[in-house]
Amino acid sequence: MAQTEVHWDHQIPLPKLAPLHAKIIVALVALLCFINSYDGDFVFDDSEAIVNNKDLNPATPLNNIWRNDFWGSNLSSNNSHKSYRPLTVLTFRLNYLMAGGLHPVGFHVLNIGLHSLISALMIDMFSILLGGLAYDGNGNRISHAPKASLLAGLLFAAHPVHTESVAGIVGRADLLCALFFQLSFLTYCKAFRGGSERDEKFSIHWVAVSLLLCAAAMLCKEQGITVLGVNAAFDVLLICNVNVYELSQTLFLRRKAEDVSERVRTGLLTRLALLAMGGAFLLYARWRIMGTGPPAFTEVDNPASFAENVFLRIVNYNYYYSLNAWVLLCPWWLCFDWSMGCVPLIKSAFDWRTAWLLLLWCFLIGLISQALCSQDSQRRRTLTLGLVLLVVPFLPACNIFFRVGFVIAERVLYLSSAGYCLLLAYALGHCCGRWSRCKGLLRASLLALLCVYVARCALRSHQWRSEQSLFTSALSVCPLNAKVHYNVGKNLADRGNTSAAIKYYREAVRLHPKYVHAMNNLGNILKERNELVEAEELLAKAVLIQPDFAAAWMNLGIVQNSLMKFKEAEQSYWNAIQFRKKYPDCYYNLGRLYADLNRHLDALNAWRNATVLKPDHSLAWNNMVILLDNTGNLAQAEAIGREALKLLPNDHTIMFSLANVLGKLQKYKESEGFFLQALKINPNAASCHGNLAVLYHRWGKLELAKKHYELSLKLDPDAPGTRDNYNMLRRKLDQLYRTTPP
């Protein structure tokens, strides 16, 4: 077992702290970096994974989280993202249960706490990877690199690339995966607690526990399986002290079998076999759970994977790797989304950007050569393990084994950044050893680097507090990203600033002419502004590009209805229903079309379908009552109104419509009750006061009628008919006063 004093550790200008104190310091730094995100909103992907995910609701059966993906869709569905993370969803559900609803503070606080815990545990991981696994006489682990592991831990705790994972609630998947990743590694280390020089002696029970924790990491995020590769590398390099370069030379030169057996012992082969079988079983189980196969991604998600030839794909993939490396090295250039033109494709070998991937590989080849061929065994082990921790967790995101649904995703660098921090701490430690005379300058430089990291984390986590600041911050980083402009526009539209939203939607469509969602939203705004011709053109183009876009078909139908193109509108509505069978809003709008065409029975059937699909569809219920009232079917209107109120007992619009029906049926007392109940919920409804006044007028309660006419006119002086009715009532009251004896 390799375990030596790290000779350059004492040169690092940091205090030598006890392990517990070091963990507390690192955890506090992690807390300081991201504490200002604790009261942030649900932003970006949080809407789909949390706000709209029914699996979080305690009323939903708990076993649904084992059948659905991370976003709440059934795994067997072709539309499923296939991201199976039930343990992460379970923690969201617990947050929901403890807070009594969707309150983001609890979600954010847990994320920050998890990052602090992970950062503290990184001290143990770095200590083992840098200084080896050693124990004292009492069985306590000895750290041979306390300063280096503290430095690496501080760099990890404060690295700004972690902001998306910590400040974005869906980053919980990366945090939990990293936590179980660490526990799996540390548990694997416990298998050698005896500290024997003979690697054959190990505890198979701890290896089994490590495999179970690896499975838990996978149930938080798929990346968790990569801990098996890190465990295997740790075993080969630190437990068995195998020189990989010499071993490969032995194998390639076909030395005698006994030479190989000296380097690879039976215990190692047994453990590697256990890791391989465990990994194979987990991959097989994951594939079976996936159901219909891998998810289908589009060209806008990952354009390089759709490049016209293999050479261009390889070049662009390597360019993506260089951008990931740059984000780790200089984490100032951060963005919530890197798709849709943010990183234009390299289409020629002469593109100047190929220099970056050449630079990356020159650097990596230099590191690998040092990791394999250096005469310093400690350098070989440290560099190799650092590269393993950097590269292996990144493998699922590298497009080699399967296509991924993103260009760059800062969240997938959460674990890989640990390898980067280990290598950076090693490099800084050697600089301190070589330039020991400049210790003051080095100490100031380290402090400045950490302060820059902390400041950048604080700024970036503040940007993640709201969608407005998050989306706006991306405009300077990815001005060519159509999705950035789309999200800025959507956020502006949601806040009522439709004029500004139009500009960003138009830019999104200009950057990506086939961006159907931007066309749909822009068409909706133009529809509301009564710019119907352009709205129709945009929506027609959207459904031409994506014929199964049900929402665009429905919105096109609404515009065509407004343009009096009734036949085309009806066809558009039915197209929407064809592509989305359960579409209550479309049935509602279809009913409105039929009502405009005086096809009353068809309208009632359409609205009834809407309420069957969505029992709380208030507008559909209300329109049925109003239509039946207007056509003189008062008994049926009453029945529908009462049925609706059983499902929506606090809906004041249905109470108002039912009260009108009951008034016409001369059920004055019941009608009065519903009017008063509606006014209790919505006291400023001028129409409700006006119609209640009419009821009192008919009922002969003239003073009450006068009171509510006056309230109605006060709320809405231009209410149609109310002024005339009020004047008629006043004349009647004047006559009564004149004829009534004093």
UniProtKB/TrEMBL annotation:
Q: Which Pfam families match?
A: TMTC_DUF1736, TPR_16, TPR_17, TPR_19
Gene Ontology terms describing biological process: endoplasmic reticulum unfolded protein response
Instruction: Indicate where this protein is primarily found.
Output: endoplasmic reticulum
Q: Name one GO cellular component term.
A: membrane
Please give the name of this protein.
dolichyl-phosphate-mannose--protein mannosyltransferase
Its topology with respect to the membrane? Answer: Multi-pass membrane protein
Q: Does the keyword Repeat apply?
A: yes
Q: Is the keyword Lyase in the record? A: no
Q: Which residues cross the membrane?
A: 20-38, 112-135, 201-219, 225-247, 268-287, 354-373, 385-406, 412-429
Q: Where are the TPR repeats?
A: 482-515, 516-549, 584-617, 652-685, 686-719
Q: Which domain of life is it from?
A: Eukaryota
What keywords are assigned to this protein?
Endoplasmic reticulum, Membrane, Repeat, TPR repeat, Transferase, Transmembrane, Transmembrane helix
What Enzyme Commission number(s) apply to this enzyme?
2.4.1.109
Q: What family does this chain come from, according to its entry? A: Belongs to the TMTC family.
Please state every residue range assigned to the domain named DUF1736: 293-365
Q: Which SUPFAM superfamilies match?
A: TPR-like
State its location(s). Answer: Endoplasmic reticulum; Membrane
Question: Which GO molecular-function terms appear in the entry?
Answer: dolichyl-phosphate-mannose-protein mannosyltransferase activity
PANTHER family xrefs: PROTEIN O-MANNOSYL-TRANSFERASE TMTC4 (PTHR44227:SF3), PTHR44227
Q: Which SMART domains match?
A: TPR
Give, as in the UniProt entry, the pathway in which the protein acts.
Protein modification; protein glycosylation
